[in-house]
Amino acid sequence: MSNCKIGLALGGGSARGWAHIGVLRALHEAGIFPDIVAGTSIGAVVGGCYVAGELEALEQFARELTRRRVLGFLDFNFSGSGLITGQRLCNVLDARLKQALIEGLPRRFVAVATEIGTGHEVWLSRGRLVDAMRASYALPGIFRPVRIDGRWLFDGALVNPIPVSVCRALGARYVIAVNVNSDSCGHGTVVPQMETLTAAEEAPVAPAEAPASYGVGGMRKLLKRQFFGRGDTGPGISRVMMEAFNIVQDRIARSRLAGDPPDIVISPKLPQFGLFDFHQADALIEGGMLAARRELDDIERELALRRPPRAMARSA
What we know:
The protein is α/β, with parallel strands linked by helices. It has helices spanning 19-29, 42-51, 55-63, 67-72, 87-97, 129-137, 164-169, 216-228, 237-259, 281-305, 309-315, and strands spanning 6-10, 36-40, 82-84, 108-115, 121-124, 141-143, 146-148, 151-155, 174-178, 264-266. The protein starts with 5 loop residues before the first strand and ends with a helix.
């Protein structure tokens, strides 16, 4: 369609990231194929599978997820640096991608991660694709960090939630950014004072269950209950951590996009979906497709304007 080098920046957003699949589908339908793909967190997973030619397999995997299957991937860890080891999910990726190397992929691909301790933004552009994906989505406190080239790495959304800057650095002249969190935090505001509830109005808190009589199976059930929370005892650990992380990511993304704006932003409208709704892939993918189709006219028009004169003469 155009000789203009196209970059695609896929942002983080946990389960909402399934919308990236729909965005890629819509772009392909329109004959738009990115030359450079940069991804953070779930964006690195979708982007890496796309560049490796495994997007269809990833879509099938996502659409077949149920709430029970999602729970089955949570291999809880009672020690170490993360609540979940992530090995079960890694095994699924390994089965499809095997020993795929980033430098051997047909398109340029970079996964963004954060180095523990220094806070450095690390661009993973070589080595095993699966390792780069794991490092990019290793949410602090949830997934175990990944060691690559002597560095301990975790989620890249802490430093670059939507990696437009990576696409620019690799030579993209037109950058499409996908922000799946644009409607999750609103624009934020200041609440001067909240009305204090009386003791009678406060929701009752269930007494803590003594773990002494629990076996390993019972401990796992208890941990899952704490992880996801129950309606009568407030949000679980997962929601508290994910929502806190999402707020930080949203603020960083706004700042980074303001300083290095993409040429266009695709923002799927997904207000009803939570960060752990991986079993809602059908609706999330559809939301991504609809969002991309809304922007197609503008994308096609801008790419046509950026086509080099020589290419325009040949097409005349």
